[in-house]
Write a structure and sequence with these properties.
- It is a single chain.
- By secondary structure, the protein is an alpha+beta fold.
- The strands form five sheets. An eight-stranded antiparallel β-sheet has the order 5-6-4-18-23-20-22-21. Strands 7, 8, 9, 10, 11, 12, 15 and 16 form an eight-stranded antiparallel β-sheet that branches.
- The longest helix is centred in the N-terminal third of the chain and has 36 residues, at 4-39.
- Mean pLDDT is 80; it is low at 283-324.
Amino acid sequence: MQNKGFIKVFAIALALVSIYQLSFTYYANKVQKDAKEYANGDKKLERVYLDSIENEPVYNFIGLRKFTYSECKDRELNLGLDLKGGMNVTLEVSVVDVIKSLANYSKDTTFIDAINLAKKMQKNSQEDFVDLFGRAFEQIDPNGRLAAIFNTIELKDRINYNSTNEEVLNIIRTETESAIDNSFNILRSRIDRFGVAQPNIQSLEQKSRILVELPGIKDPERVRKLLQGTANLEFWETYENSEIYQYLLEANTKIKEIEEAEKALNKDKKEETQKNEEVKKEETKKITENLTEKVSKEDKDTSGISLLDKIESDSLNVDSLNATQNLLKDYPLFSVLQPRVSRDGKQLLQGAAIGYSHKKDTAKVNAYLNIKQVKALFPRNLKLLWSAKPIDEAGNFFELVAIKITSRDGRAALDGNVITNARAEFGQNQASAEVSLSMNGEGAKIWARLTKENVGRQIAIVLDNYVRSHPVVNQEIKGGRSSISGGGMDIKEAKDLANILKSGKLPAPAKIIEEAIVGPSLGHEAIRSGLISFVIAFIVVLIYMVFYYNHAGWVANVALLTNIFFIIGVLASLGAVLTLPGIAGIILTIGMSVDANVLIYERIREELKAGKGYKLAINDGYQNAYSAIIDANITTLLTAIILYYFGKGPIQGFATTLGIGILSSLFTAIFITRLIFIGFMKKNRVLKFDTSLTRNFFKNTHIDFIGMRKFFYGLSIIIIVIGLFSLVTRGLNKGVDFVGGRNYLVRFEQPVNTNQLQELLKNVYGEAPEVKIFGNNNQVKITTKYMINSEALDADDQVEELLYEGLKPVLGDKVTYQNFKDNYRMSSQKVGPTIADDIKDSAYYAVFFSLLVIFLYILLRFKNWQFGMGAILALMHDVLIIIGLFSLLYSVLPFSLEVDQAFIAAILTVVGYSINDTVVVFDRIREYIALYKKRERKEIMNSALNSTLSRTFNTSMSTFVVLLTIFILGGETIRGFIFALMIGVVVGTYSSLFIASPIVYDTVKKDETSRVLKGKRRR
């Protein structure tokens, strides 16, 4: 084998990279395990522990660099929401509202009619809404001029009465894209402050859509309000730090008094209820909670900036524990809020910021300052807001800024509606970036007065109740033009700030069009069932390979273990997210990865049977198997790429792992096993490629596949016709992915009656939802379209509250709404009508382009349309049978057979698997033509099919056994998906043998047999 050195170096490098990337997962899990042991089941205490160690080094990489726990978390292998619980949301920015605001909410009837018509056109179109609006406007009034509507004060510098409709549409398009970017920045800023570990936000291919993933979220209502609220930009006057410091001292004293009083009261209550056993238990619980809270305070990380240096230096010293407790007792507020004083502690620093806190302590500060008695100490016109950006490089500390309310109605002196333009540029000294602002006439007057009255003081620029900037006013600013600079702002930060400032002018509310919530308990169950099925399927394949190929089976197993290690390592390196379908993709890769080894081993066995020596047989076996291996895996890889492109969310995770698995399988099967064989050959050791039981399997078979083709044509036609009849009469059990609606997975303590639940929910919804047993008879899936078209921001919350009310008679009075959401509602899913149409279109495109790409690849490789036709018709045959069976069986089988995105993933995976098998047969036909030039085409094809039976059986059997293992142990959520794959393996194997090659035989004319089968083109 050539380039052995390079292959060894590459394999070692890949292994080292995988070990390095997975080491972060190991250390992150180690810290989390320590936190659980420390907390002993107390989730609050566990969170405090993790917060305290967040920026502490926990991993020393061979002495080169130390990584903190936070850095390890950022680099660990990410688990999808279906494995660890959380919320997945797709938002769509309302382009309609942006266009309305650009037209200054014009009442022009033509404009309003055009907007309404464009909204109707959008339901059945994937075009940009601006294009639809332009076409609708022209359709309603061919002679109408958009310039007359959009020539507003804000756009007068860009649009005049002579502007053409096309020019106006281009400006509208630019502004809507800018508004969408603004919305993305605003959402990202909000999510960063939401306190969720490893949040993910990304713009989707559809320009107006944004994907948000929030793992571990427990308050969906708050998230919905956070994500769907419009941006609120304000300009406030501020207090000076020196003006507020005395109030902080008084607040600290008051908080101390309140806490001491509460402790005394708790002590009295304990003494009074000592005799009552039930009350005694309740009080014991309260005392435990108080002690836990006390320990939490003592264990908080006070590294960084602290008013009480003694707390910092003694926080980990057992001997000084009592002193630390006394300091925390005397300075409860200042233990979590560091006042802004000079380093020597003798002078107060200038500015509106009155202190700063670690991000984990901001909630505690808010709780202290919101105590009724404490609030009464501060001026009534004082409002305290946190900074949007941290003040330290590590991103841990945030400032608390003192805002002065100067208006009677409590509103800001100036809001974002006055901003006409904001752009990022470099300052005069070119050392840092700044943001240049322009205001309308009214805003310019207020801004001039505001700056004149606050020369030498700071003005706070606030977005969504967080202080984005608080620059010092140097002089009165006239003309409505100003700039924001300072803080070492780079050009990217300046652009983001400019976009945020412009968002005050362009309100672009976002609406949730798709949502999925997975409870943590369901995620843990998915991990457990996924890992169990993974381990068992893996062991089954290892045993089977040794059983069938003897010593060579052990070599294949080494390659298989290496393959799994590389797949997980590469996933971690790419920052990919491992989902439940992703685990299914890895397990499916296990089944399919043996295919390359099987192809090689079968070739080697053929060479040994032909009388060749051990070394020559291995060399020729590898050489002769390369063509079939590459063709088979490329077709599957192309399917995975198309699936990734057209899929979304978990389906992309499945496609990612499948694609990585295919590439890794090729490398390990072709190169790793070859290196092992070379090592054995150097030592003159001989490996056996069979056992006494498997030595003669599928030898000397003479099945007349071509002769039986008409029988199997008829059998396939009958099955397909029955399936089509069922499709016409029964249809498919379409999931919400395709029809829109809401799904709720609810688990009860006892078995339930679906008819009873349906009637109860009909009373609250006004329409009967679909209620089905999902897995065990105490778990149901509820599907409803109630309020799915509602544009109300709280529609999702209303539907969920009604769900609780409807199920309350079955749940019992003791189950509260919060308890229902935490422990009974295992997951929920929402798909709006618009995105459901998009999913359907993507599914059609995915299947169509998969078939097209495979046809073109077969045509390219075999240089004849007959081979491509045979492959495509066989694939269509497979797809129709699977769809027909899903139509026939969806109300018969005891598990869900919904047609959703996972079903499309299964279809395309079957397509890839089936073509894999077909290509191997075609490759052998092409080879036999060169060897047996005088044989008849029927004999050639039958010989090729019989010679590949061993490979077909081994690959199909190993894959099917793996899928069967997942089907039994993998959990209810992917059972329908796996069932489709199991059918696909059986049908795909059948079509490769009895459909694809016979079609090639029938489409080739007798006088063209030689040309076609040899792969020659017509001249």
